[in-house]
Each structure stands twice: as C-alpha cells, then as structure tokens.
Write a structure and sequence with these properties.
This protein is an alpha/beta fold. It is built from 14 helices and eleven strands. The chain folds into two domains: about 160 residues, Aspartate Aminotransferase, domain 1 (Alpha-Beta Complex); about 250 residues, Type I PLP-dependent aspartate aminotransferase-like (Major domain) (Aspartate Aminotransferase, domain 2). The chain starts with a helix and ends in a 5-residue tail after the last helix.
Length: about 475
C-alpha cells in the first residue's frame, strides 16, 4: 500500500467509523454467533501474496462484524463500560499514526511530559493528595499488581528482587470477599500465593468490615505471618459497594500495612465534589487506581495509577542496561521504571483530547446524568411488584432480580433470573450481566455508556418487564 492508497482508505475508514456510530443502535448489542463460527470462515493459512484492501474490508464486514459485541452501543448495560468518545478515537488514530514507543523521555519527550501533566490534572480533578505522583498503566489489574509488588519490595527492603524468596517470609495480603479477582491473580504472580490472600467478610452493604480486618491482622501476626497489603475498593465489581476507606486506613496505619485503593470504575465519580466522601482518609493510603477507560469516555486502555512514594515504585521496577542509559537520568520521568513493561503506548494523548474536548463541567454533567438514570431505574424496580433491588446504588450500577410472589426458594429464583438474562441478551436489544450476592443470582444494570440516554434506559426497563412477564413459572 502506498501513500495515495493509504489516503484513499483512511478517508473511507473515517466515513465507515462515522457511519458505525450513526447507526450503532441497529446492531444487536451482543453477538449471536456460536463458538467456532468465526474461525470456520477464516483461511487456515495466510495468503502467499498481498490481498486487495477492498476484499479485506469485505471480509471485515461479513466475517468480523457479526462476531462483535458492541460495547459502545447505548443499550450496552453489561459489566462496566469500556467507554470511547469521538475525541478519544481521533487521538487513538494519531497515536497509531505516530507509532511512538514511549518507554523513556528520550524516545518521545512530548509523550513523557504530557503524561506527567495529565496525571497532575487527574490528581486535581479527583481530589487526591497534591504530593502524590501518577503514571498511566494499561489496566487496573496491572496497577494492583504494581502495588502488591511495591509493597513486597518495600517490606523486604528490596531484597526479594535481589535474592528471591527465602521461604520464610510468610507474607499475607487482605481484601474483602467482594474485591475484584485481579487481587487474587496478583498475589499469585507476586509469589505470595492464593492461600495467603485473606478475604474479609463484608457488612450488610457488601463493604469490607474494618473490625474484622483488624482482627485478621492481629490473628495473623500472632500466628507468625507478616501482613503486607490491604486492597480496599471504591465501587466493587459485583455491586459497586464502597469500602469504608477511613476506617480501613486507620487499621492499616496502626499495623504498618500498605493500603492500595482500587477505584477502577468508581474513581471517575470523584470528579464530582459531592462524591469526595469516598476518599476520606486517602492521605493514609499508599496507592490508588482508577480507569478513565471505564467511565471517563477514554478508549481502552488507560488506567491512572497514583502513589504516595514514587521512589518505592521506581526501586521496585527499575533496571538499567547499557542500551537504555541516557544523559537525562534523574532530570525527567522515565516511565518504563514505573511499571512492569518496558514498551509503552502514547496513552496520555487521548486523555488530553478527552479532557480538553469535554471540559470538566461537561464530564461532571454526564457522570451526574448516569447516576440520576440509575436512581430512576432503581425507583422503577421498587415501585414494580415482583422485582427486588439487591444492593445499595451509590453510583450508576443497579443490582436487581425478578422475584414474583408465586416463586419461593433460592434455587428456583436463581433459575428464573438466569433464564430472564438469557432471553434479554438473546433479543439483541440490550446486554446485561449477572453476579451472585449471598448466593442469590442477581442481574446487573450498568448505566454508564457515552451515548446512553434516558430513553435507552426506559426502553430497557420496558423490555425487562415484558420479558419477565412472559416467563413460564412453575
């Protein structure tokens, strides 16, 4: 492909992308293909000669698009959002065109300095302590792993990095029973071990019980273990419960334990001053993460990771072979020392485009509107006989189930709600996911899409009611 062909196809693809967003509501939200259906349409061997772009795009439309679940659809209410927006997409196009490898300052000074400023902007926008430092990671899972590794190294005076485990460390990590599975994966990777992740029970609102945390720490110390890190969550994956950060921070301070705050989804709500109650006590924490790629209209991947002590982070990850030495060491931020990978994308560009294009006021308005729509949906459930709200609704996720009076028993209610979810998603008109709260099958309605409006939520509610009414009950 030469420059002229690239120009022609770049214009066509820009039109195709614009058409996609203009017509996104015409696609079934969740792909209906069966396992192996896409693979069966793909050649088993690569072509020997280059193929025409027209044929490639034809296959994209006919093979790939039917297998896409449309995360940017305004009727996507599953998981948490992985939001995009027009300014973010434009920035991603430029990022791809530049192809910059942003591992150290020298490899793209603008990328390093823009990232530093964007982290400063986000720190101010979310109300984090002014002396904290930030870096963009790919996901919150990576950020949590970085926190656990940093805590491990600081506790061992960086000896584990040098000599490895002795087998005598007996380190322990702590989280609630509602904490994201990334904490469990991280303790495996960090060598602490799944059996040394202590899961603390939650209260009636699914928040970590700080009293039980303190008891667990004291019990483990008495048994010869060394408490290493506690992971608190602001907006759990299952039901967006908000752990009592200040109470947990007090316990961690008393026992000298690293406190990591996972606000992957919920952290965006900190743009709203009225939600700063969630981070009361944050000054006693050690690290914090939230994902602009979830609820801040910035394309995946973009995870904002902040630390109180950047030197602990850098000492954990830095390594300096001769081919990476530069004359600017110590004068600039070389972000490859701030995380696991050496190679780094130019993620700060899309963040810059989004924040400047929306402005703080419009970002706040959209977040408030999502929260308002979630409250509206909750009130419909409360007013409609046969439906139950299963957890508090502090943010924009509503957990609910269908529970008609004629049905009793957890197993039967679980079966009915699983059937309801299957029928709703098969309709192609929306996409929901589920969790289990206290063993009860619970539907999750995540209202946070960039394009989602009140009308989409109303249509979803109408479909949920109609589908539930049509279920055959025993």
């Amino acid at each position: 492909m030469n420059n002229a062909e690239f120009r022609k196809w770049a214009h066509r693809l820009a039109d195709r992308m614009a058409d996609y967003y203009e017509n996104i509501e015409t696609y079934p939200v969740k792909s209906g293909v069966k396992p192996g259906e896409i693979m069966a349409q793909l050649p088993k061997a690569p072509p020997a000669s280059g193929e025409d772009m027209k044929q490639i795009m034809s296959d994209f439309e006919n093979i790939i698009m039917p297998g896409i679940t449309h995360w940017q659809s305004p009727d996507f209410f599953a998981y948490f959002p992985a939001n995009g927006s027009y300014p973010s997409i434009l920035a991603e196009m430029l990022t791809a065109a530049l192809g910059a490898q942003c591992m150290v300052w020298d490899t793209s000074p603008a990328a390093a300095e823009l990232e530093e400023m964007m982290m400063n902007w986000l720190r101010t926008m979310t109300g984090l302590p002014p002396d904290w430092q930030g870096v963009i990671q790919d996901t919150a899972s990576t950020s949590t792993l970085a926190a656990i590794l940093s805590a491990r190294e600081k506790a061992s005076t960086y000896d584990i990095n040098d000599t490895g485990f002795t087998g005598m460390e007996k380190l322990r990590a702590y989280c609630s029973t509602e904490t994201h599975s990334s904490a469990e994966k991280a303790v495996k990777i960090a060598g602490i071990g799944r059996k040394n992740l202590v899961k603390i029970a939650v209260d009636a609102e699914y928040r970590m019980d700080a009293t039980l945390l303190k008891q667990a720490l004291a019990r483990d110390i008495a048994s010869g273990f060394r408490p290493l890190i506690v992971v608190a969550t602001l907006g759990t994956t299952g039901c967006t419960s908000v752990d009592p950060l200040n109470e947990i921070a007090e316990v961690c301070s008393e026992y000298g334990v690293w406190l990591h705050v996972d606000a992957a989804y919920g952290g965006t709500a900190l743009l709203l001053p009225e939600y700063r109650w969630m981070i009361e006590g944050i000054e006693k924490a050690d690290s914090f993460v939230f994902n602009p790629h979830k609820w801040m209209f910035t394309n995946f991947d973009c995870s904002a990771y902040f630390v109180k002590d950047k030197e602990a982070l850098i000492r954990t990850f830095e390594i300096l072979p001769e081919y990476l030495k530069t004359g600017n060491r110590g004068l600039v931020n070389d972000y490859r020392d701030w995380g696991i990978p050496l190679g780094r994308r130019f993620r700060s560009l899309k963040l810059w485009f989004v924040i400047r294009s929306f402005g703080l006021t419009q970002l706040q308005e959209k977040i408030r509107e999502h929260i308002r729509m979630a409250q509206w949906f909750k009130f419909q459930l409360v007013a409609q006989p046969g439906f139950e709200v299963m957890a508090p609704v502090p943010l924009s996720l509503v957990c609910f189930r269908y529970a008609p009076e004629s049905i009793s028993g957890t197993d039967e209610l679980n079966r009915i709600n699983a059937e309801l979810l299957t029928k709703l998603n098969a309709s192609g008109k929306l996409f929901l996911t589920h969790t289990k709260l206290n063993g009860e099958y619970t539907l999750r309605m995540s209202i946070a899409g960039t394009l989602t409006t009140q009308l989409h939520v109303e249509n979803a509610w109408e479909l949920i009611r109609e589908t539930a009414a049509g279920l055959k009950l025993n």
